[in-house]
Amino acid sequence: MTSIDPRPVLLLLAGLTLSGTALADEPRETAASEEATPLIDPAAMQALERMGAYLRGLQAFSLKADDTLDEVLESGQKIQLTKTVEIRAHRPDRLRADIETDRKARELYYDGRNFTLVVPESRYYTTIPAPPTIRETLDYLQAKYGVAFPLADLFLWGESGDDSGAIQEAMRVGASRIAGQPAEHYAFRQADVDWQIWIAQGEAPLPLRYVITSKDVEGEPQFTATLNWDTTAKPDESVFTFTPTRDDHPIAIVATDDEATATP
Hints:
Elements (H helix, E strand, L loop, with lengths): L1 E2 L24 H9 L5 H16 L2 E13 L5 E13 L3 E8 L3 E6 L3 E6 L4 E6 L4 H12 L23 E10 L2 E9 L3 E8 L6 E8 L7 E9 L18 E2 L1 E4 L4 E4 L1
Parallel strand pairs: 7-13
Antiparallel strand pairs: 1-2, 2-3, 2-12, 3-4, 4-5, 5-6, 6-7, 8-9, 9-10, 10-11, 11-12, 14-15
């Protein structure tokens, strides 16, 4: 069974192409017109830059994301899995995520000094020292332990290393509405991924929905997420620190080249 991995492309998602194949007997002026059509619409890229600047300016927020992920069976049939993620953040050094899927749950804490991963079902947890900022911690967890923080690109978009240079095609699809909120719909294309994103209209250009299609996986599974934001939230300090009880059991997390394993 295979599934797409949305981690590298939360906001590097991908989408639709503007180009088509010209017929051999197509009039010269039509072909010239098509050649003049840019594959990357500057307005679409500017929308991403504006969104990234706004996200970087948020000092505190909370959001809830509901997403679906396709898994492709060997028969080619697709199985859809669901997940709910609640994130609370306070820049530059506080982050919390509560994750619930139809198979498991996880709690992630970052308090500026330590990162803690909790498995609520078994009450196992692991705590490791962490770098002093959210950005550094996200990079560190991924590189050393293979731990991908959900929706991590919300903290990376528009900064160095965000992979925006990988976009090969970009277009504005048009005006839309997400849960009644006016939005602009954009589509992008990268080498192995197509993605779409809906960005709120107005002074708060927040990402409201995105769809990732993995072109390099058989069956081209999709990942879809809808985001519900609260930019007025001011999470309490206690939200970001895990305090174990008698029922909680510490375990060690061991770094490897590709993944991390936990042992009692």
